[in-house]
Design the sequence.
């Protein structure tokens, strides 16, 4: 073993996408082929990226004599049919071009650029290294204003995140943290995804490795492409070395920052940061440092903060002018679901979005098991401009839906004491609307083609029709109570509106594959039919 006299660094260049690395960027697929073993044998040495593979190099409109500085994109490499890999000048480099390779096939060892600065010439390949614990430099940080659309209604509609946001998913064993992380990897509107399995069980990572190559995504032009073409996996299971587990999170975020600097929106899933903190505790113990709460080191909160601070929307260095973002979604596994655990409480003091998973919801087979009473998002104000453009009425609908769900929680205590029949008519309608929201809106079946992914327009229209039903039913009951005719009760509404009620429940069965225009026409017809149905009901009651 020989020291390189440099910090732990990542190799960054073509070949990262579709690959699977361990925590210190050893290519696991290559090692498995080379060693023929399921475990990494001692003494094996394999470069992170294949240095012999030929890549299609296409220089941009730059020539000999042009000045170039760090962050400038000087070439494009065709990596796969989904992603263009832009080659940028590494941070800290600058000068006048004395040689740039013509278009053609080159390996990562071939010189493709030569710069001259103050009489000194320096050669560059398509590959460069970067220390994993050092954030990559940017021109400036920007305020994020575009939502991270996940395809999960409860997240997109009630607790949205932004491209460049920080999210935490704490939950006990079996609540579905890994499933939500995988759903985000499959269906989010990010350009590329870095999935870090940090200290989780080996069979979970094996499931990810089996599922991802089989998954496809449909592009706007109708092409089907493999999700793996935009994904990088960093697998550090619980039986791998502790030091590599501690480094794996930094390896993942460095790869994410590399793609961000090309102008892409990157999502990084860390599953789970609790195992990373446990590795930190173990290393701290070996170094004989003074332990703090629950044996974790005193610097746990600052390490977590420095990691989450690397998220955000940025103005990238160099030209052309471009912006990129890194969104961090960290799963947290508190022992026994105890949210007062040091890792959970330190994480919640940093992140802006909290998707709290509930064991009771998971036991009722309600997935995603996000508890709508304890979860929150601090990005709602930042996204108001986007929502106003998309649908001016959405913000009011969301507020009303939250009020209905909160009111249901308050009424449940009364119902348990005196029964449902003792409630007023409007309270009965509130309970029915809340049941619609809970069972047919917030819950999603990930194993069906129509509900595994829900586009945002479908989420908005489903919510609009449910809230419209609630408003019309309450108005009908109030007007009939003040008039001299027949009273309209909740029971009358339920019996007379049975067909429309069934259509409300069945909204989730509409398949997005039919197309946006077809679905919106169906939802609009249901909206109009609800209005007509309640008008007829009121006319008959007079």
Sequence:
């Amino acid at each position: 073993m020989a020291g390189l006299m440099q910090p732990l660094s990542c190799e960054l260049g073509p070949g990262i996408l579709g690959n699977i690395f361990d925590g210190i960027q050893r290519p696991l697929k290559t090692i498995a082929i080379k060693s023929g073993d399921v475990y990494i044998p001692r003494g094996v040495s394999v470069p992170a990226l294949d240095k012999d593979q030929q890549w299609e190099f296409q220089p941009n409109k730059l020539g000999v004599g042009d000045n170039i500085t760090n962050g400038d994109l000087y070439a494009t490499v065709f990596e796969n049919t989904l992603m263009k890999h832009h080659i940028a000048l590494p941070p800290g480099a600058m000068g006048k071009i004395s040689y740039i390779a013509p278009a053609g096939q080159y390996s990562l060892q071939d010189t493709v650029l030569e710069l001259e600065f103050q009489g000194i010439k320096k050669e560059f390949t398509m590959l460069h290294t970067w220390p994993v614990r050092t954030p990559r430099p940017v021109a400036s940080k920007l305020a994020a204003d575009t939502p991270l659309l996940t395809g999960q209604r409860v997240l997109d509609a009630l607790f949205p995140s932004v491209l460049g946001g920080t999210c935490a998913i704490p939950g006990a064993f079996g609540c579905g943290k890994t499933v939500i992380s995988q759903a985000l990897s499959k269906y989010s509107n990010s350009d590329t995804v870095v999935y870090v399995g940090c200290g989780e069980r080996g069979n979970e990572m094996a499931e990810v490795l089996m599922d991802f190559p089989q998954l496809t995504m449909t592009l706007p032009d109708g092409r089907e492409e493999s999700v793996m073409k935009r994904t990088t996996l960093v697998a550090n299971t619980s039986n791998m070395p502790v030091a590599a587990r501690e480094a794996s999170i930094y390896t993942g975020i460095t790869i994410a920052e590399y793609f961000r600097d090309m102008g892409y929106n990157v999502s990084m899933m860390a599953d789970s940061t609790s195992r990373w903190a446990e590795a930190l505790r173990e290393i701290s113990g070996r170094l004989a440092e003074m332990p703090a709460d629950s044996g974790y080191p005193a610097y746990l909160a600052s390490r977590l903060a420095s990691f989450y601070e690397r998220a955000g929307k940025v103005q990238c260095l160099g030209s052309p002018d471009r912006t990129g973002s890194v969104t961090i979604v960290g799963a947290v596994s508190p022992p026994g679901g105890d949210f007062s655990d040091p890792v959970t409480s330190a994480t919640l003091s940093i992140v802006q979005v909290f998707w709290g998973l509930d064991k009771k919801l998971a036991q009722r087979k309600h997935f995603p098991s996000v508890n709508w009473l304890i979860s929150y998002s601090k990005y709602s104000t930042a996204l108001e401009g986007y929502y106003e453009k998309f649908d001016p009425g959405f913000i009011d609908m969301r507020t009303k839906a939250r009020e209905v769900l909160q009111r249901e929680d308050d009424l449940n205590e009364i119902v348990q004491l005196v029964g449902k029949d003792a409630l007023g008519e409007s309270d009965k309608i509130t309970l029915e609307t809340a049941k619609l929201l809970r069972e047919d809106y917030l819950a999603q079946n990930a194993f069906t083609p129509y509900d595994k992914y829900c586009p945002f327009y479908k989420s908005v229209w489903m919510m609009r029709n449910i809230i419209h039903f609630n408003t019309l039913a309450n108005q009908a009951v109030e007007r009939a109570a003040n008039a001299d005719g027949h009273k309209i009760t909740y029971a009358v509404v339920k019996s007379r509106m049975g067909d429309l009620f069934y259509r409300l429940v069945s909204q989730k069965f509409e398949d997005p594959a039919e197309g946006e225009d077809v679905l919106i026409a169906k939802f609009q017809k249901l909206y109009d039919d609800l209005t007509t149905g309640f008008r007829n009901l009121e006319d008959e009651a007079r």
Summary: The chain has three domains: 53-126, 140-378, 394-541. Residues 193 and 245 are 19 Å apart (CA to CA). The mean pLDDT is 91. DSSP finds 16 helices and 24 strands in the chain.
